[in-house]
Amino acid sequence: MKKRKKPLKPADIPALTESNKKLVESIFGGPAGFINEYDSKRILSAYGIPITREAVAKDLGEAKGMAQEIGYPVALKVLSTDIPHKTEAGVIKLGIGSEKQLEQGYTEILANAKAFKADAKVDGVLVQEMAAGNGEAVEAIVGVYRDETFGPALMFGLGGVFVEVFKDVTHRILPVSEADVWEMILETKGSALLKGYRGKGKMDLGAVAATLQKVGRLLDDFGGRILELDINPLIVYPEGEGGVAVDALIRKG
User: Fold this and answer.
1) What are phi and psi of 75, to 5 degrees?
2) Beta pairing class for 138-147 and 169-173
3) CA dihedral 245, 249, 250, 251 (to 10 degrees)
4) Is 91 left (phi over 0), alpha (psi -120 to 50) or beta?
5) How far is Cα 175 from Cα 172, in angstroms, rounded to an integer?
6) Does the pTM exceed 0.85?
7) What pLDDT digit, counting tens, does each position of 88-144 carry?
8) N or C: which end of the chain has fewer CB within 10 A?
9) Are 116 and 90 in contact (CB under 8 A)?
10) 132-143 CB burial, b ≥16 within 10 A, e <16
């Protein structure tokens, strides 16, 4: 049996560099409301949470160049704080495998955005690598919400469609300790998939624990501005291979 990696303790999580602090402060500046996916993930990245390779295209030509650089297949997503939930609006295309598909998808999602909300402010189109697992990965969800009585709370569970179907999530009031995050992971029924189920290998539990602690550090620093935070999915790879935040959304107060 492989020895479990020692998770990062809060003291081991590096403080923000000055440049990252300025970046995060600049994104949190301005009026209340949703932060688009690209900027939400830039905040996560500043705290050392791995994110997908991606870039924002302002036109079709830029999107083609970015897709070529990232490498097909890619995902296309309309970036708009007026359309925070992209799937229901039809402004996301996954598994774009060629330039022709990109042309069609790019045009379609922008048309869908206009049909969904004609006056939506569009910040561009996010061109993102497809970070699908190889059959062994598990999708998890990490979230932050505000409890009316106790204040900000951390949530963890299985992600993707599973969070809606099984509602197998666990919660802790922030701040959280190293012991707290491990309890959160292991007390969910979905932890059976993370620990290895019916011959499948163990997922990188240490990466999950580190992600939860880094989100906790973000709330320590900027909790006064964060009303909601959602990472779904956090793709968790086999032990030793880490994890990556594929989609994220932050709502600031």
Assistant:
1) -110, 150
2) unpaired
3) -170
4) alpha
5) 8
6) yes
7) 999 999 999 999 999 999 999 999 999 999 999 999 999 999 986 656 899 999 999
8) N
9) yes
10) ebeeebbbbbbb
